[in-house]
């Protein structure tokens, strides 16, 4: 799996498909839970399903999930971190968009040539 990489980009629903098969970090708001799957709202408002590790207890309203991107709107959890209840997702989204902006992505390590192809992983 892509977990070999130290670089784990922050993503929103828009940028998640670029990283299919790679480990990403997804800051989000919890919408609902059904069994070991949670539906979340990413920083840009898009909905994503996160497959939890069996028995994971989710606390609070906001979370940061780390795990491989599976397709266009799914992440499989490797790690979970509770974010503060006063988290500002629009501010986080601005940072995510900056890092993915083509003008800066080479410097930030987020440059990719095509979906799933990382050209700068030295971050």
Describe this structure in words.
The longest helix has 12 residues, at 89-100. With 123 residues, the chain is mainly beta. It has helices spanning 89-100, 105-108; strands at 23-34, 37-42, 47-51, 62-68, 74-76, 79-83, 112-114, 117-118. The strands form two sheets. It has a six-stranded mixed beta sheet, with helices on one face.
Which terms would index this structure?
single chain, mainly beta, six-stranded mixed beta sheet, two-stranded antiparallel ribbon, 13% helix, globular, disordered C terminus
Q: Determine the N-to-C terminus distance.
A: 19 Å
Shape: globular
Low-pLDDT windows of residues:
113-123
- Based on secondary structure, the structural category is mainly beta
Backbone CA Rg: 14 Å
Please give the count of helices.
Answer: 2
**Average residue-wise pLDDT:** 86
The largest beta-sheet arranges its strands as 5-3-2-1-4-6
Report the order of strands and helices: EEEEEEHHEE
Content of β-strand: 25-35%
What can be said about the biggest beta sheet?
6 strands, mixed
Number of strands: 8
Sum this structure up briefly.
Its main location: nucleus. The chain is mainly β and 123 residues long. The protein has helices at 89-100, 105-108, and strands at residues 23-34, 37-42, 47-51, 62-68, 74-76, 79-83, 112-114, 117-118.
């Amino acid at each position: 799996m892509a977990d070999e990489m130290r670089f784990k980009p922050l993503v929103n629903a828009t940028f998640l498909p670029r990283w299919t098969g790679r480990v990403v970090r997804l800051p989000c708001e919890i919408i609902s839970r059904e069994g070991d799957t949670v539906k979340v709202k990413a920083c840009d408002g898009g909905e994503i399903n996160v497959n939890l590790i069996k028995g994971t207890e989710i606390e609070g309203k906001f979370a940061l999930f780390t795990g491989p991107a599976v397709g266009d709107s799914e992440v499989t959890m490797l790690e979970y971190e509770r974010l503060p209840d006063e988290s500002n997702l629009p501010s986080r989204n601005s940072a995510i968009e900056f890092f993915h902006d083509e003008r800066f992505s080479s410097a930030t390590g987020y440059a990719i040539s095509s979906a799933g192809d990382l050209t700068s992983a030295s971050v």
